[in-house]
Write the structure tokens for this entry.
Amino acid sequence: SADPERDTPAAIRAYLAAFDSAFLGVTAPAPDLDTLLAALGARRAVAGPSKTVYFIGPAAELIARADGPHDAKTLAADYLKVRGRYLSTHRAAP
């Protein structure tokens, strides 16, 4: 979440439960979020929550983004496609 003032861990957990129990939601203090969002070419929404979902890889790289509005089933299917594409091009080190 890019809104640490309102998105508590419990609120994030409840939101993600509509998508998949394996999804992991995170947030951080505002200065840390601003650094991350700048690296993603984004910023914290001033007039309300962002509808953009960012897919971040294990090396903290931007893999893909999905702009809302979102349907849980479509977003989950898109995630699986993005993940499959990522795994097919990024082999784990032996």
Summary: The first helix runs from residue 9 to 17. The chain has three helices and two strands. Helices lie at 9-17, 30-40, 72-89.
